[in-house]
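Anyone? Bumping this.
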Amino acid sequence: MKITVETNSGVFDFDCGAADKLLYAGLARGLTLPYECATGTCGTCRARIMQGAADVDWGEAPGSARLKRDKGDVLMCQTRPTCDCVLRVAAKVAARPDCDTLPQHRTARLDVMRKLTSDVIHFELALSRPMRFEAGQFVVLEVSGVEGGRAYSMVNFGRDVDRLAFVIKQKAGGGFSDWLFRGDAAGRTANVFGPLGRATFDPEEGKNILCIAGGSGIAGMLSIIERAAREGYFRDHTGHVFFGVRTLEDGFYLRELCDHAGQAQGRLEVTLALSHAPAPAAAHPKFPHIRLMEGMVADVARQAMSGRCDNMVGFVAGPPIMVDHALRMLIREARLSPQFVRYDKFA
Amino acid sequence: MSWKRVCKVTDVPENGLKMFTVDGVALVITNYGSGFRAIPPLCPHMEEPLEESGVIADCALTCTKHLWSWDLSSLAMLGETERPLKTYEIKLENDDVLAFIDKELVYEFEDEDDMADDDFFSKA
């Protein structure tokens, strides 16, 4: 079906299959349509259907709260066209069909699952064909038997990789995490759409790196640190990772973080912030390159980074309240320009 | 409507912002150090209440929800911000901040006809 989208920066056309979502089809063709979560939570991909008709997958999506449905407003990430459509999108959009990380649909097999803590699992997907992505990006996963898509940031990094690694925290009533924690998911097939997201690390920017993550928000930070380490970035720049968990036992990927910190010879500092337990020592008892501090992760970062935020790019990921807190800190106290602050909120 | 007394200069500290209601019109007074601005209470992006989401640093107002940002001195849009801030004219008299409130300033998302409006795309 032909989709015409009228935007604040011109009119664009793209094709969209009956099974595809308007947002995904447009992004796959290189249009920079507005979005953040791509899974119905944030409301950023709002559009108005001026002509045509469409089916909405998840009518109660939290991101639809402010839509004017009687006027044809939809979330593009939840909407499949049933005929040719004309949309309006109140944002500036550009066409970048030559971008080498355009998102696409792939299938994948779930084949490595490793429990990291009592309620956190590392899992991997073997892709049907390789993917190129930027460090810090995510994909949307769909599996049969679980309604809707879920967004997960890649933990690994590589160019044209055929495996993606993720981390997931068990959430009561979370359909996808329940499915994974049930224990029979290995070998099952998933549909993958991506890569997505603009909270990416670009070594060309030449900035020192500040990462503030809560829980599984550490995923994209590991990808960023992996990329930086491979390129020898910490020879000329510093990195600071603040990883918030509840107690010492809730930390994960500490071996990987400790190894990176050790290899960076003091240029990469990693701090585990414990929100619900005192720090038993200045350094982690098993991972000596990981510093321990007590407090909410954004507060810990503020305290540790006071006066040390020159030439910095900030990455923030985690639960919405933590992200909001960290963004305020980065702009008000660390004085980062919004242009150099990037975030992912997990709702 | 006309010039209305909104608050005392000291009610809004430097790099602070605070919402007031004057004759039924809600507005936010921002203090960016070298001056004040009076603006509608919602972010022009996605209607976030700026009194909660807004942060002022280095003369820039940033809505921390999606990081749209404006220079409060020049009113220039910063970074990827796509819509300008609307402002009420203000003046300082003695210790008071006054705003000229002719009519309530609203962004198009509050207008029933916003996206159906033929000249929607030519609007700021």
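Late reply, but here is one note on the structure posted above: Residues 13 and 278 of chain A are 56 Å apart (CA to CA).
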